[in-house]
Amino acid sequence: MRQKLPDLPLIICADDNADTEGNPSITKANQAALAIGAKVAVPDFRVQHPGGAIDFNDMAKLLGLEAIAGAIRQATAPDPAASATSPPPEGKRPCYRVLDDWQEGDDGQRYPRGVYFCGTQTRKNGTTAPVDTRICSPLYVDAVTHDEQKDNFGRLLRFKTTLNEWREWAMPMEMLKGSGEELRGALLAMGVNLAPNHARKQLAAYLQWRTPTQRMRCAMQTGWAGAGSFVLSNCPSAPSIV
Question: pLDDT tens-digit profile of 184-222?
Fold first, then answer.
C-alpha cells in the first residue's frame, strides 16, 4: 500500500496488550509504522483495560465513536513536546510547548520537563531574541467537558504528579476567574509543580490557548447520567467523566 500510495497518511490502530509481557501488539505496530512511515493510534479506555478490553472495537463499545476519532486525532496531531534542540522559529512565536522529559538544547543548556511559553524579547538595540519560560510540570489539555445540558464547561487536564505518575482531572472553567488562585491551589494539591512567578501570569492563558477537538460529557452528581450510565463518586469536589 505504501508503494502504491507514497503520499497517503497511514494510521495503524493497534491493540494494547498491556497485561502481556513486552506488549507485543504495541511493539509490532511501532515496528510496522517505522517501516512504512505511518502513525500509531492506541486505544485509551481512561481506566486500565476494563473487562479485558484491548482494541478499538472494545473502545467503541465502551466509549463511542467519538473516542475513536479522538485517539486518531491524537496520533496525527503535531507533537506538542517538540525537542528543545529544535525550538519553534521566531515566526511561530508566541506559542506553548510541553516537554515530557529533560532535554538538552543546541547551546548545551538542559531544559527541565514541563510546559513552556515560547515568546520573544526585544533587546536594547531593537532586535528580538527567543525566550522560553517554564510555567509548570508537564500538563496537557486533552478535551472539552460539559454536562448533559451543555452547561458547566471545563477542560480535561492530564499531568505528571510529583511522583512522576500521570493523572487526569476535569477542571471547571470557572476556576480560571479572577486571579486563578483557587485553580493553582488545586493543581498544587494534586502534585503539579508550578513556577512561582510565571505560573500566575501564563497558566490561565495556556489552558485557554487552544480549544481541544475532543468532547467529553461530565456528570455533576452521582446517580444516573443519561441512558445506561450510573455515576459513582470518587472525588466529591470534581465532576465525573461519563
Answer: 999 999 999 999 888 888 999 999 988 887 888 777 656
Using the structure block, give the residue that is written with the C-alpha cell 500510495.
5
DSSP letter string, 65-109: HHHHHHHHHHHHS--SS--TTSPPPGGG-SEEEEESS-EE-TTSP
**Would the pLDDT of 80 be above 50?**
no
Number of domains making up the chain? 2
Neighbour-count burial of 199, counting CB atoms closer than 10 A to its CB (0-12 exposed, 13-18 middle, 19+ buried): buried
Quote the percentage of the chain above a pLDDT of 90. 29
The DSSP 8-state label assigned to residue 233 in this structure reads P
Name the residue among 227, 69, 232, 59 with its Cα closest to residue 143. 69
Residue 94 covered by a domain: no
Domain that holds residue 50: 11-76
Residues 149, 237 share a domain? yes
Residue type, 212: P
Mean of the pLDDT values across residues 135-141?
95
C-alpha distance from residue 66 to each of 8, 44, 122, 237 (Å)? 23, 12, 44, 27
Q: Which SS3 state, helix, strand or coil, does residue 3 take?
A: coil
Strands (DSSP E) contained in the chain are 11-13, 39-41, 95-99, 103-104, 110-111, 114-122, 128-136, 139-146, 154-160, 166-172, 215-219, 223-224, 230-231, 240-241
Q: Is 142 exposed, middle or buried (0-12, 13-18, 19+ CB in 10 A)?
A: middle
Pairwise CA distance, residues 32 & 118, whole Å:
34
Q: Is 177 contained in some domain?
A: yes
Phi–psi pair at 145, nearest 5 degrees: -115, 150
